[in-house]
């Protein structure tokens, strides 16, 4: 299982996600361009020393990512047709989150084998991307037995 971030905008979120990835032993794909310099101090502060332990692959663009993507794309999106509790995950899934400000392009949305949404109360639109990934990854790892020992 992997995490992929499509053109992330907020360094602190990426740092938090890298920290989570390091703790769970999951590789992270970052699809550029990013909305911040990758050496941004906010990324380092949010990831603390854990981020250095994360396995990170940076891709120049969407096509470069697709050329190297090893698994099924599962997109986290507020417009997903599958609610998270109904999603069936596999160990080779790549859980993809879009840019905090603009989401993903139609091309990216259409490339995903499954588009999932996290159900929430009426009147609320979305969660922070790092929190959403944490929730989705927890369920995916539970289903596939991928929790670290």
How many E-type strands? Answer: 7
Q: Can you say what the CATH homologous superfamily is?
A: SPOUT methyltransferase, trefoil knot domain
Could you give a short account of the major beta sheet? 7 strands, parallel
Q: What share of residues are in beta strands?
A: 15-25%
Distance between the termini: 16 Å
| Helix-residue proportion | 25-40%
The first-level CATH class name? Alpha Beta
Order of helices and strands: EHEHEHEEEHEH
Q: Kindly state the mean pLDDT as a whole number?
A: 92
Q: Unreliable runs, pLDDT <50, ≥5 residues?
A: none
Structural class estimated from helices and strands = alpha/beta
Give me the secondary-structure topology.
Elements: E1 2-6, H1 11-24, E2 28-31, H2 41-47, E3 56-59, H3 62-68, E4 73-76, E5 82-83, E6 94-97, H4 106-111, E7 114-117, H5 129-144
Parallel strand pairs: 1-2, 1-6, 2-3, 4-6, 4-7, 5-7
Helix pairs in contact: 1-2, 1-5
């Amino acid at each position: 299982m992997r995490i992929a971030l499509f053109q992330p905008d907020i360094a602190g979120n990426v740092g938090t996600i890298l920290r989570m990835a390091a703790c769970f032993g999951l590789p992270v794909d970052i699809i550029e361009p990013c909305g911040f310099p990758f050496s941004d101090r906010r990324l380092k502060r949010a990831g603390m020393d854990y981020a250095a332990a994360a396995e990170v692959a940076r891709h120049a663009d969407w096509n470069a990512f697709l050329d190297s993507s090893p698994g099924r794309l599962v997109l986290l999106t507020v417009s997903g047709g599958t609610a998270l509790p109904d999603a069936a995950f596999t160990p080779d899934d790549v859980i993809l989150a879009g840019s905090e400000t603009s989401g993903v392009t139609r091309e990216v949305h259409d490339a995903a084998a499954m588009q999932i949404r996290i159900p929430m109360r009426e009147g609320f639109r979305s969660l922070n991307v790092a929190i959403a990934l944490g929730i989705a990854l927890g369920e995916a790892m539970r289903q596939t037995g991928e929790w670290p020992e």
